[in-house]
Amino acid sequence: MPGSAGVLTAGSFDGSHAYADNGQYTVTVTVADDDGGMDTKTFVVNVGNIPPTLTVVGNQVTTEGAVLEIIDLGTFTDPGFGPTETFTYTIDWGDGSPHDSGGATIDVPGSAGVLTAGSFDGSTPTPTTASTPSRSRWVTTTTAWTPRPLLSTWETSLPC
Fold first, then answer.
1. Is the pTM of this model over 0.70?
2. Is the predicted pLDDT of residue 134 greater than 80, yes or no?
3. How would residue 84 be classed by pLDDT, with cut points 50, 70 and 90?
4. Is 10 buried (19+), middle (13-18) or exposed (0-12) by CB count in 10 A?
5. Which residues in 59-115 belong to E strands, given as ranges?
6. Which residue has the higher pLDDT, 3 or 95?
7. Which of 104, 114, 44 has the alpha carbon at shortest distance from 75?
8. How many CB atoms are located within 10 Å of the residue 105 CB?
């Protein structure tokens, strides 16, 4: 609203911004008039982190002792973007072996309104389970044998 003698000029303006990462940011706003006068104020914006969204492959089938290698075992998206964005992964293979971990690959760098997308691979020897004898049976990968109870006397069947 234009001012006049004794009446201040009033106005407003809008702004918008997409933050690349979580953190605390100080916004500085300056307004200037046509006579060189200006005023500056600040306010703080606290940007919360949103965790990445992870997708993993479906159930897998392999054989003992074989290497299970999975390309793009996990893919993810994240609303954060910019040159400081990095991602790490950890894989627990579920068999008590050491966890695999490392840096994930950023496949699509994000930007304002575009999610950062990435992936990681995984491979490990699958656990080998040794067959062991027991009192009731011996199991191998091809046959199973179940013993009969021991007899108290010898049985013979010889041709006459």
1. no
2. no
3. confident
4. exposed
5. 67-78, 88-91, 100-103, 105-108
6. 95
7. 104
8. 14
